[in-house]
Amino acid sequence: MRKLMSLIYNTINPVSYLLVLCFLWFFTVCPAAAQEASLKFSDVPEETLLWPYTAYLASKNIIKGFPDGTFRPAENVTRSQAAKMLVQAAGLKESPPLQQPFKDVAKPYWAGSFIEAAAAAGFLKGYPDGTFKPEKPLTRAENICLLLRLTKKPLPQVDLPDLKDIKVNHWAAYQVSAALDTGIVDLAGEKIFAPDKSCTRGEMARGLALMMTLSPELRKTSLEPMLVVKKGKVTVLSPDSLTPQVVNTGYKLRVGEVIQVGKDGSAEIIFKDGSGLKMEADTELEVAKLEGASFLSRDGTAKSSLEYLEINLKKGKIFGALASPHTGAKKEEQKPEKAALESNKNLPVLFSGHQPPLSLQSAVFKYSQKSQINLAASLPTKAQSEKELPWWKAATAKRTKVKVNMPWGVAGIRGSFWMNQVIPNVKEIVNVLLGETEVSCGSQTVITKDGSSTQITGAGLSPSTPSPMTKEEWKAWLAVKDWVLERAQEIQQQFEQNLSLDPKTILDLEKRLEPYLPSEVVKATIDALTRAESQAGKDDSSPGGGGGPGYATPVLTFQPALKRVALGEEFEVSLLVQNVQDLYGVDVQFKYDPEKLGVITAETGDEWKGTKGFAKVKSESGKLSLVMTRKAPNPGCRDTVVLSTIRFKALSAGKADLEYTFHELAGSVPNWLTHQIKKGVVEIAD
Q: What would the pLDDT profile of 328-345 be if each residue is shown by its tens digit?
């Protein structure tokens, strides 16, 4: 570096030297800024649907674009470009060509080493005449065949959809049917795949980014869960140490470490996907296995999720939260794109004229007191159940993701909120607030579901028949409800950012220019906690009491939504509340971007007009305050009530955030659900 700087100094003037020095300093001392700049292409803005995929690939140095700063997504992909991207995505070592395997690929050719590596790995082959044709455009059929080779898993048989240009005897019919089912590629038209049409750089970028987070081999990643001490003494004993280490702040856990929480302590283990364990006093557990998987986030970054966790719970009590896309509604199996369309029915309109893409309504959780006891041998094993699924579906299939080994029994957790307690030499308890757990001991397994509990009282003894949780067990969940809601909100937030969760559904929603909301975690969790309020025997007539007989769970959150308008256009947004008992007062703030949006009118709903009540709307720059009261409580808002409708005008192009903040819903039930903040987005086009 010194020789380089000396050479520069002797060949240019001092002012230019200082400029070069600043440039080098910026990109060496500020690598984050340099990396951020490298993720951007001038022709792929952040607001476009392609942005996350190109940013993801750029962050991994798989694509770099052209010297002019463009990516040129509409241009065709050449065979040489495809070879380079596949080799780098697969993590293959690049080495200078030792020979000339193809007669039309000269040794000094820029992609020669990539072509040789791709050919050696079996990604690409030459033509019978010994040529490779590096500049020949890749077809759409060839592209999906190459992408599917990024996994060594066998390609299962998938029914070919009704296509006009591909029948079962087509050379790529097998691959096309699989690629369409995964969602890594879309049709080119109505029942048209266009197999011989040239593949664009944008199409390959999207498919490649998704394959890197769907391929069983490429999606594997390491996890670094954080151990957070909440109070008291907490120690960690590592496999390579004889002395426990006292933990006072955040600590990154490793496999094989044993955590001991003192009799006056408590701690949490937090994963980046929102999953977590809450460890109560006098608890000891060991992290036996830990596996992670990467997924593609909407901001173009690679994030991690919990793939499999195995712990040995030696004593104490833990509450668990598992990020599972199966939390919430129990629906019949249907194709993802159909589910996305069907779920739009009967929804409250949050943005006037536009509905959220997936249902905001949670399933009604009916508890059955009938026990479900099966012989362990009769239950399908994890290997058996996953073997029947294509590898791209096995990644998101409902399966055991957390295994809790207790001294006597084993609990296999499928989702989503559960509790394990080990009282040494006395009993082991497993109960489930929301989700499903298989508890095994001896030769029998019981399935414990929403609101039920089971016990093991001795080595080799079968778990008890699942029964409703006791009042004390419900109260224990209410004691940690803040933690439960925090985990639920984090899990749902991560789901909403996960482009790898269900590419096929996402692709369908992208065409309709609407956001993807794959989860009802928060809503389902609120349902479960509301039930806990009731089952714990709390006085329903008091503020903050249970939901009460005959009332559905209150919906007091604004779900994210997307509104697209033209510059100068006027549009309305409605603020709603559902299923709130005895509502007689509201204090709400509505925030917006005053540079992009102007308020024309803000009217209260019919419930607060005329003689029914009093309403005051105070408008400031970027904020509306709505204070509304009724002369008498509304005796049960079981349906949707419009609190206010605001009419905006689009003032300037770009994105404008909208935000509802519920300060108070006086007399609402339960009042601890009223402090939620959710955002929406208005996109204003020129």
A: 434 333 333 333 333 333
